[in-house]
Amino acid sequence: MKAESVAFAVAGMCFGVILGWVLATQEANRPDEFAPPAAPAAAAPAAANEPPPPPPLDEARVRELRSAIEKNPRDVASLTQLGNLYHDSEQWANAIDAYERALKLDPNNPNVSTDLGISYYLSNRTDEALKQFEHSLNVSPDHTKTLLNKGIVLAIGKRDLDGAANVWKRVVELAPDTPEGQRAREMLETVAAAHARQGTTNQ
């Protein structure tokens, strides 16, 4: 499982802005396809807080892993590590290929399944991401990283803030003092603040 979840990859400093946009478009009954707006000019000074660019791909390590996989196509560990390398460098198509191959060999691994779901989502394959998260939760119902990511995809990809909030509440209940629990609590607070701002705007 990657140390960083999709929460840190796509939410970041603009999460509140995106949630406000989600609320606005919900009221306007716009289509459900996710097309996030550009961050407003006022957010520009905070650019230093944005996540750093992905590290370059470790080509030497990729060659080592591919060689190991060629010798043993059932080497789940090497396939998973290969997927992680591609994930780190944001090469989503290659990450998906490696994770899918690993998961075929080890279908009950919730970590690989969730990393695959994240890669689907970051490839604009929202429905497949949610389906993959459900697989992870069928294997491990209390897998907090999966729940955290499912909430983000529901909120941003499906504009389902109520569904997202329910999932994040579950994360807080399960693991309040973990990084996942703390992040879920922050996002619940952001949702509440976005609702409050929207209510004030509509008055």
Describe the structure.
The protein is mainly α and 203 residues long. It has 10 helices and no strands. It has helices spanning 6-11, 15-27, 59-71, 76-88, 92-105, 110-121, 126-139, 144-157, 161-174, 179-202. The model is unreliable at 7-13 and 25-48 (pLDDT under 50).
A few lines on this structure:
The chain has 203 residues and is an all-alpha fold.
How would the blueprint of this fold be written?
Blueprint: H1 6-11, H2 15-27, H3 59-71, H4 76-88, H5 92-105, H6 110-121, H7 126-139, H8 144-157, H9 161-174, H10 179-202
Poorly predicted residue ranges: 7-13, 25-48
CATH superfamily: Tetratricopeptide repeat domain
Beta content comes to: under 5%
Tell me the Rg in angstroms.
Answer: 18 Å
Give the % helix. Answer: 55-70%
Shape: elongated
What is the count of distinct domains?
1
CATH class: Mainly Alpha
How many alpha or pi helices? Answer: 10
**What about the largest sheet?**
none
CATH arch. level architecture? Alpha Horseshoe
What is the succession of H and E elements?
Answer: HHHHHHHHHH
CATH topology: Serine Threonine Protein Phosphatase 5, Tetratricopeptide repeat
* Beta strands, count: 0
The separation of the N and C termini measures 45 Å
Average pLDDT metric: 80
SS content category: mainly alpha
Features:
67% helix, single chain, elongated, 203 residues
